[in-house]
């Protein structure tokens, strides 16, 4: 990985990690747990593909094994199914198991796929590098220690694949619609996948079609018409063949010309869509019009206004008709031929999805929405860039949250805004990019983006944008311990943001207070932090206000005022409890009921049991063994956990309260504690 400004020219970022697969591996700041058993995707039951799977298996296990193989064929021919079958058979031979990356969501850019693979390899989200070259270097370094079978599904270009080739003892199994000649220079041979021969096609059709279709006189014309396309056969067998007589199906096929297996799949999809129930057909049209790559009931229910259970039932019906392909997590994908054959839905579907993504529409986002919609949001951003829809792209860049690849969407939006000459939009997006990089510890990219935003703000003579950019630069400098420069920039940001942006002004004041505390200027620190606190309270930002209370408590504790420190920590917990924080609510309830005396602190064992009780009650935080005591204490990086730890560490046992009595009371509480409301 790189530091500020990137690596010096000529420096090789790759490294080899030689370690047994049953021990932890550390790469820089990243520590990976030992690899578990190989994760093999479910392999479909194939018909008529034994020759292909044997040939690919021989290539994969041979002595002169290439770095990978490209399995290509027209849409609907079954490249993904064959690749999954091969992965299921040979994946257990690789210590790292099987890694699956579905490509194409972000066009031909491999960056998001690299990020997904790094997360699957155990890298924490903040530790994923921002630059593509750094992601590739880390990806190959990790696979050098744990070789894996990497399935790259749906490649569009040689560049798309090249950055994802694992190298070493790993192997890449790539699928694509057609040959990618550029991969030959990387030593990756192509393997074309043909259509099924007539006996295998008849067997596949007979597996799902009803009894009347067992007659060869009905089967043979349909098999010839499908031209070996497995998807066409499945669509006809599970839809039209089950709903109409053979004569009617043949009449419909005679009226439709299909030139090649891909065209047969599209034509069969059109017939299958036409025979689906109207509500299911309408739902399919909404999914296709929205451009969804992965389809879930919660999102479609939000887009259509249907009940989630009704939507889930309709999706299941579409899956049974093979118009959708089911995924292990209960979601679905829409095959390309079906997407092309589905009639357009009413206009405005894509706009409603964008409103859902940006939180601007009437429908509320379902819980965990950004996690389930990652692929769809990448595809939406790539499509907006392709259509030069810079307004939609900018709205996405301002709204998306992890675990979506925020850095990629923000970079795409910034580049598009620059191409469009929209300085104000570009500056706002660069500021978001700087914040994303700063949270991930990428100081160099964060400074570059913030500096670019500052240049644009100066060009626009926009002091609000300039103040925001200066504040972000100060944040980076403070985190790198350049405290003198950071304090000067925080003061400048406060001047620029006063009466222009109350939220950013509050952030600058809090940053100024934190830096002053680090420099030993406690009085001035508390003054700035209390100003930030008042601003957050006026804005109704409860969690930010709680964080400011926490900072005030830490500062008062530094200068020895234990009473004021405890009061600040209690205020932080009360603020969080009012905002619904489960850990803070439980602690506050215990204090209100007289079960804990927090003002003067708790003795070691009682504090430990308090931590155990809170963990049992909420599931938040972890119980760790302190080196000087046998019982756990509350740990974690949340504001509530930090405030509770600070309170338990302050002062002596209150007068008149028996430590033994409190120990017994807390032990009883820990035994029966359950999550409270909220």
TrEMBL record:
Can you tell which superkingdom this protein's organism belongs to?
Bacteria
Q: Where is the signal peptide?
A: none
The record's annotation in InterPro entries points to: P-loop_NTPase, TPR-like_helical_dom_sf
What transmembrane ranges does the database entry give? Answer: none
Descriptive protein name: Tetratricopeptide repeat protein
Could you tell me which species this protein originates from? Answer: Pseudonocardia bannensis
